[in-house]
Design goal:
The chain is an alpha+beta fold. The protein contains six helices and eight strands, in the order H-H-E-E-E-E-E-H-E-E-E-H-H-H.
Length: about 270
């Protein structure tokens, strides 16, 4: 049996459903006499996507564009990128996965830095030796060991603690939000042909049915949607392809390893 070419279509791992498609599917529960606009189909779809963003999804883990770091001592104007180690971060952002910095001749790799609350950092910080960016336990990491996040107006910021005292690069990976759909042609950003794609359609139907007083159809669609959501969560977790043979530092403690395996990944964290 040979290869069958079915069309010149670029494959994608993400859904091809648009907002218009989802509105039409959601309105089907109302029958043929009502339009998507008249039953609140768009609002229903947008509510479902907003609710999905309460979870951290492994499929939506991204690496942001690397941020060029500068010696903070050369930046003296508040609000300027690099001022006291503060940089703008890409949005939408659900939560950080990892961050690391590179200095000198490094073009890949680097030193991991860790997220910390600013008040906790202020309690733990060591005595300074004259300048903001240098602590008594500095190494080749140019003074940068931790980061925290905050917002200036509507702009998300990352603050490096301590600020770097050399030019370098910040590499970050994070859980992104599933983008909201506002235009009819906007595509749903979830894995294609899977339970999460079906969940959005089914839960949107349940919300529309609730809007127009169809309690029986609402309950059926909501129940089916929750089943699909459970499948999607398991699929997202299994997508990590965790290698049980990995020799982690917790390998000698089976209880710690078990707790890490079931309690520390992706959407199960938040």
């Amino acid at each position: 049996m040979g290869i069958i070419v079915i069309g010149n279509v670029t494959p994608t791992r993400f859904s091809l459903l648009t907002l218009a498609d989802l509105e039409r599917k959601a309105a089907q529960v109302a029958g043929s006499g009502l339009t998507p606009d008249s039953v609140g189909a768009r609002d229903a779809v947008q509510e479902v996507i907003a609710e999905l963003n309460e979870n951290q999804w492994e499929f939506n883990t991204v690496r942001a564009t690397d941020i060029a770091l500068v010696d903070y001592r050369a930046v003296t104007t508040p609000g300027t990128e690099g001022y006291q180690g503060q940089y703008s971060i890409p949005l939408p952002l659900r939560d950080f996965v990892s961050a690391r910095v590179r200095f000198g001749s490094l073009v890949e790799g680097g030193w991991p830095i860790y997220q910390i609350r600013r008040d906790e950092f202020d309690r733990k910080r060591t005595a300074y030796s004259g300048t903001l960016g240098q602590t008594v336990d500095d190494s080749s990491q140019a003074g940068t060991r931790y980061f925290t996040t905050f917002a200036t107006g509507q702009t998300g910021k990352i603050e490096l603690l301590d600020p770097p005292i050399a030019a370098g690069t910040l590499e970050i990976r994070y859980y992104a939000l599933i983008p909201a759909l506002t235009q009819p042609t906007d595509r749903l950003f979830v894995p294609a042909n899977g339970p999460l794609e079906s969940y959005v359609s089914e839960m949107s139907r349940a919300k529309v049915a609730n809007n127009i007083g169809l309690s029986g159809r609402r309950d059926w669609s909501a129940g089916n949607a929750m089943r699909l959501l459970g499948l999607a969560k398991n699929q997202d977790r299994d997508g990590l392809n965790q290698d049980d043979t990995w020799e982690s530092e917790e390998a000698s403690d089976p209880y710690k390893e078990r707790a890490k395996r079931w309690g520390g990944y992706g959407l199960w964290r938040g």
